[in-house]
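Subject line: Sequence and fold of a protein, written as structure tokens
Body of memo: The sequence and its backbone structure tokens, given next.
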Amino acid sequence: MGISLNPSTILSGQGIDVSSLVQQIISSQSGELTVWENESTTLATQNGVLSSIENDLTNLQTTVQALDSPTGALSANTATSSDTNVLNASVSGTVSAGTYDVEVNSLATQGTLFTSAVAGGANASFLTNGETSGDLQLQVGGSSGQTYDIPITQGSNDTLTTLASYINSQSTANNWGVTASVQTDATGSWLELQSQNTGTTGALSIANQSNISLQFATPVGGTNASLTINGVPYSSTSNTVTGAIPGVALSLVNQSPGNPVQVTVGPDADQITDAINNFVTAYNQLVGDINAQYQVTGDTTGDTSAQPLESDTSLRALQASILADASYALPDATGGTTVNGGLINLASLGINTNNDGTLTVGTNAAGQSLAQIVASNPSGVLNFFQNSSSTGFADNFNADLTNLTNSTAGPLNADIAQNTATEQDLSNSIQNFQTQLDNQQTALTSEFDSVNASLQAYPLLLQETTEVLGTLGSGTSSSGALISSEPTLTSGL
């Protein structure tokens, strides 16, 4: 690009605009820098999209691995109760499918022990007349349980209030499993002892007492839960019963003798359906984001622009790979469709492929929904996704995703690495070139500052020269002609 100057302006003393002139020169040489910067921006944009799609791919693999795991959602079991007002059931370990009739005859209860009302109230001494000490022996856990000695001392723990406090502190310190309290009503105040445990381990009784006037009523509670499972009697110290049905925990709520509750143990259809739906959602997110890279967008002026990864061959290969994985069918040596009860591909599960490659959970050719298929043939669904020969849908898909998401050999990760390396090279080139331009700008500025100083001084120099010449005398030439003493100078160069 040519740069022009106006002679009349620069010789008038105004000089030149050094900054503008230098900037024009630098700009004329920085076109390559702009190209590099645009390339770097494009690569950064591509990497952002690639990383987002790679994240989609990783999320998809997580959902596929859940379908491929032998201990995952497809193998999950659940236990349900036909009457949750009587008992609840949950899976607590390895179970076998089956139905059990459970009859709750009685619940496990906490042991309770209480005294008659004490004359004089909660703060009156219950030592017998004239005694300054006494003794109380509390038995916890029935006849085979532990007996705890409670010495009574006048002024220390010889009232209901102080005795309750003493028992609570000893129980906490020595793990008695007993809570003491003082109750008061219209009849007076009395001591109540309650076990912190249910069943016979929480049964309470008084083994012996001396020199005290407390009168204890007959112990209440401290009995085991009684139930039958398929007619077999079972006793439990807790209302949470484990071990009676392998891998199942029963939580007893109410007794209901004569009215058995049905507990059903089997595949957890909700977990299975959720896991499959999670796969469909993750798959559609990936396919949708890939499809978006092949859509042409336009602005209000009608101009159109391509997406950052429209020409990325790795993305095309990825798209083809996952579409092929989604159309996978279980191999059948006979070439028919009767293998695995007809559950051979996604469509047979009611998961259909749309024109854009995404999936929709609907119904299969027989009009069955995914939920219905899972409920009626959970083992077939499991075998479709995973099997002992590793030919299941999830087996195949997970193997492919393992390669596609490889941190170095995966196509998108390889693209990201290549773009990142190119970005770094461009960054180095930009930095080096910018340094050169900065150095050139400094040198040009210094050079043109010097020129500008001379140009700005020119009018004064011209004036001074004219004045000097004007002082010279006049004379005649050799021919006798008159010579003027005032020479004429021009401002041209």
Summary: The first helix runs from residue 7 to 10. The mean pLDDT is 87.
